[in-house]
Specification:
Its main location: membrane. The chain is an all-alpha fold. The chain contains eleven helices and no strands.
Length: 272
């Protein structure tokens, strides 16, 4: 074979490779274009859900900027976390109860909503000294719902096989229960912490009483039983420690008195 024929074959192969790469590039551009159009349509049809996704993204950002203060004043970031969470709770509450009525029945229905609980939570801690533990339930709920909705957006765009989507799937499907249990655990232990901060002069007198009301609402929640279940788990663990043969008598009595005291504060739960 002559040198001219070899050069012609090489040119033909290069041309075929260029044509193949350009066609694959055009195909990916078409797929990406369809994905963006589908995303725009989804956003226009689900404006409130998209707004909730955005406020949760802001909540996560401000939580990180509070813990790693490289974007500004950490106290300002702390307040912005509470404000963005309040906005999320208000939007979610509007979704659940779109019409407002001035009646006792409406107020009772309002207080049964989880979003109303965390709207109260955000307002309550806005006027107290910053406590890092306060942000933990907010961060966990925002992370869970942000990941869940982001997974839906990736599915709309046709990117559900990407590495990021697989991480979100594992977070939502496999860590869902642990995230909710962790949030419930922190909710419970914030109650004695509000009392401690009161005696340290960092909290107001109304905070423990208002937070107790919040905790009773969480305990009675119909849609999220994790706080109630966590109380039960903590009671079982405490009774196990108290009943161990090596537990001192004074500690055993203190544990049982604490269990009796906390059980007496628990509200009655209506079985649905």
């Amino acid at each position: 074979m002559s040198d001219e024929q070899q050069s012609e074959q090489q040119q033909q192969q290069q041309q075929q490779q260029q044509d193949g790469s350009s066609s694959s590039g055009e195909q990916s551009e078409r797929v990406g274009g369809r994905g963006m159009e589908a995303l725009k349509t989804h956003v226009m049809e689900h404006k409130v859900d998209t707004a909730l996704w955005a406020t949760r993204a802001l909540t996560l950002f401000f939580c990180i900027s509070y813990l790693i203060p490289i974007f500004g004043n950490p106290y300002s970031s702390y307040q912005k976390v509470l404000m963005s969470n309040a906005a999320t709770s208000a939007l979610r509450l509007h979704q659940r109860i779109p019409s407002v009525q001035f009646s006792r029945e409406f107020l009772a229905q309002l207080l049964m909503e989880d979003s109303a609980h965390y709207l109260l939570y955000s307002v309550l801690f806005t006027y107290t000294a910053p406590l890092t533990m306060v942000l933990v339930p907010i961060f966990l709920f925002a992370l869970l719902h942000f990941a869940s909705y982001s997974l839906g957006l990736l599915d709309v765009m046709g990117q559900n096989n990407a590495l990021g989507s697989r991480f979100l799937i594992s977070l939502v499907e496999f860590q869902h229960r642990n995230i909710l249990r962790g949030a419930a655990f922190v909710e419970i232990f914030l109650m004695p912490l509000t009392v401690i901060t009161l005696f340290l002069g960092r909290g107001s007198l109304i905070t423990p009483f208002a937070y107790y009301r919040f905790l009773t609402l969480r305990y009675s929640s119909r849609r999220n039983p994790y706080t109630r279940n966590m109380f039960h788990e903590l009671r079982m663990a405490s009774e196990f420690i108290a009943n161990k043969p090596g537990t001192p008598v004074f500690l055993r009595n203190a544990i049982f008195r604490a269990i009796t005291f906390v059980s007496g504060l628990a509200p009655a739960v209506v079985v649905q």
